[in-house]
Design goal:
Length: about 425
């Protein structure tokens, strides 16, 4: 498997060297990326040589073999990375820590809610052991055979470490994969993973917030020797994200509706700024009312469920209310074309008698959006496309959400059509 993603690496290096317009506007956080661009190539060897001559500034990632020195050994390691013959690789994870994996990785235990999507997108699904973190059994269409895999739990202490160890994984991809975990509480969970899985490298990378997706995918490409596929998807994701952002950035703030978003449960718990759901709202050209009470310095910033008083909701009078909550006994999204589950969520919000005078409810502006489309894994810009088409139909006239979803699914190795209940009530024209 080691050469699978590297067979055309020399051609790729040449192509990107002569086509700067195709460069990605992200930094590849892999040691060996001495010049801090988006690829490890001959330019990094030249940069290390300049550091050694004293003509270039030393960078953290120039220490390719991670031995705290920049020398000839780093040049040798960069050459091995380029040729896909490195025996180990060091990268920076979501906590800012340097983590080293041994190469190649033939067996990974992927425990994330979303991280496994990125492995599928870059063609590394054949490296995944038959375990999942959360139970996927409610999603047989989206996850395929993975929906039948054994669930071992996703975050400590509720993880079956003994079962994971019995499979002898080369690495474990954890569920510490979004910004809410990049704190002391998340670090304690990471320490518990290390303590219970001695000697097994951990992969903790941001798989959910769309601002980080392209950079994360590039790192996965180097970890799993799927650089070419990773770069293809990262480029598509960045172009799609930027295309939608250009539209929403041109919409005057006063023309952006004020909204609230339920994620994991109904009631008066709404997603805060900085979260993956909020980022989809902002991309779609909406203003999140929770921003009024949860600022960037708040401990609730980035949370996906912040409890507020009903009186506050009535005072704010949102123009739209969105939810991605679905009764556990119901289906929507990719799993069915039956709208009853989505309709149940919409009706539960609309039937709240204390909110009957809200503009969102009086005007019929309560919508369900599938959690996969706003939950991460590279799908957030598509969720934003559906929402933008609803909120600003003229500005988003040229955006075709179903077409974008079809392009996304084309990166999977299995053919999947964008059929299902993704936004309900349906738009008159959403393709």
């Amino acid at each position: 498997m080691i050469d699978k993603g590297c067979m055309m690496i020399s051609l790729c290096i040449l192509f990107f060297a002569v086509s700067p317009a195709d460069a990605l506007d992200v930094r590849l956080d892999v040691f060996g990326n001495a010049n801090l661009d988006d690829i490890i190539d001959e330019e990094d060897i030249a940069y290390v040589k300049d550091i050694m001559k004293g003509s270039a500034e030393t960078t953290k990632l120039a220490d390719a073999n991670y031995d705290q020195e920049v020398d000839e050994e780093d040049i040798a390691q960069i050459e091995r990375i380029i040729n896909c013959t490195e025996s180990s690789l060091t990268f920076i994870d979501i906590f800012g820590d340097a983590e080293t994996v041994n190469k190649p990785i033939n067996h990974v235990a992927a425990l994330g809610y979303i991280g496994p999507q990125l492995l599928r997108l870059i063609g590394a699904e054949d490296r995944m052991l038959p375990v999942v973190g959360p139970d996927y059994s409610n999603y047989p269409v989206f996850w395929g055979e993975m929906s039948q895999w054994h669930s071992v739990g996703n975050t400590p202490p509720d993880v079956d470490f003994e079962h994971i160890l019995s499979l002898s994984p080369d690495a474990v991809q954890t569920n510490l994969e979004f910004l809410n975990y990049a704190n002391d509480a998340g670090r304690k969970m990471k320490e518990e993973f290390h303590r219970n899985l001695p000697g097994i490298p951990l992969i903790c990378l941001n798989a959910r917030e769309p601002e980080h997706t392209s950079a994360t995918v590039l790192i996965y490409g180097y970890i799993f020797d799927e650089e070419e596929k990773a770069r293809d998807f990262a480029a598509w994701h960045q172009e799609t994200y930027n295309r939608i952002k250009r539209i929403s950035d041109q919409i005057p703030e006063e023309d952006k509706p004020e909204v609230l978003f339920n994620s994991h449960e109904l009631g008066t718990k709404y997603t805060a700024g900085g979260s993956r759901y909020d980022q989809s709202l902002k991309l779609a050209g909406a203003r999140n009312l929770i921003d009024k009470i949860v600022k960037e310095d708040s401990p609730f910033y980035g949370k996906t469920s912040v409890d507020v008083e009903p009186e506050w909701v009535m005072e704010q009078n949102p123009e739209y209310i969105f939810t991605s909550y679905l009764n556990p006994n119901s289906n929507a999204g990719f799993e069915t074309e039956d709208v009853s589950g989505a309709a149940e969520s919409v009706q539960a919000i609309s039937n709240q008698t204390e909110f009957s005078e809200l503009d969102a409810i009086k005007n019929g502006n309560v919508y369900y959006i599938d959690n996969f489309l706003v939950g991460g894994g590279g799908l957030n810009p598509i969720g934003a496309a559906y929402l933008g088409k609803l909120l600003h139909p003229e500005e988003f006239e040229e955006i075709k959400p179903d077409e974008l979803l079809r392009e996304y699914l084309a990166f999977y190795s299995t053919e999947t059509e964008p059929k299902g209940v993704f936004l309900y009530p349906f738009l008159e024209e959403q393709v």
